[in-house]
Description:
It contains four helices and eight strands, in the order E-E-H-H-E-H-E-E-H-E-E-E. By secondary structure, it is of the alpha+beta class.
Amino acid sequence: MAAVYGGAPVARRVRLKCAALHALGVKLNRIDPGVDEAAPAPRRRAWRVLAVFLAASVAVHATALVILPQFSFDRELPKVRVLEVVLVQAEPPRALPVESVPARPPQNARTPERSVARAEPPRSSPKMDAPPPVLALAEPRPAPEPAATAPRPAEARPAPAEVSREVARVPLSLPSFSAAYLRNPPPRYPLAARRAGEQGTVTLRVLVTREGLPARVDVEKSSGSLQLDNAALETVKTWRFLPARQGAEPVESWVLVPIVFRLEGAS
């Protein structure tokens, strides 16, 4: 029989305490050790059963995870091959070698015969027989009449000898530019050429017209300085000349004009 404290059995109090503690989530182990044997056995069994079910569920799920892939993934869908499409420029078709067939000459055509020039022996000109001499038959002459004076044959006059007439060439006088009345100015000495100490002789070739004007002026021989050559050209283009003459007639002619550039004190 259960001991009674204060009129109520001890087992009833323990149950009430266990229910209250269970509601608060407190474990039964914290209860007085003398009361462990009096704890309800069905609740422990329930926890054990629940733990067994949980363990079994975990084991079943683990087994399913291990076994099911072997059946589900063995039947995989057929693999789809991915084809890579690459655009490649098509090569032009290779021309097949055409065998050149020699053209056959037509049957009717005849091969031209080669004309071989044969050296023919020189033909000897046939000898022409000299015509037989014609015999002049003497006709009977009438009675002699008084002889008439025969006309004299015309005398052959000698051909007139060709008289070679030599045309006397009129001497040509060259143009002149040194006449005092022409008043041709001398060329100016370029200042840059003076400072550089440049000097020399320029020879110009001038084409003088009939009027005595320089139609063309070229450098025949340079002085070695471009400045001196240009100064001489520009000056001579303004000169006046005495034209060349052939006899009394003025003619167009070329003349050489030397111009000397020399610094003072230079040897």
